[in-house]
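TOKENISED FOLD:
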Amino acid sequence: MDQIQRYQQLNENATTPDQYTVFFLGRHGEGYHNVIIEKHRQDWDDGWSKLNGNGVMTWGPDAELTLKGEGQADEVHAAWQEELQFGLPLPDKLYCSPLTRAIRTNQRTFSGLLPAGSKRTS
């Protein structure tokens, strides 16, 4: 019996209103703001964080994913595909920040994995 089956069994056999819930937590892929923070770590709070860009790159107020960030989301997607083959259930609900980088990460992570017409993201 795997861990998911244990939680399901606990819920089925519960004699009280207690319920066990499994949360799968993720973080957005690398955004352009992460690149600038890494490059200008010492000066981020004093100035760079108050700017939306530098003429070459835009990181605010709502940073997009970098190519690396898109690749990170694609890697998580591949991990979900693999784990689904072993019986890992898809989440019943997906909660996502309204920031573009979080939405894009969520979309890339679960693209093609959810049933057609599924509305799980809140």
About this structure: The two ends are 31 Å apart (CA to CA). The chain has four helices and no strands.
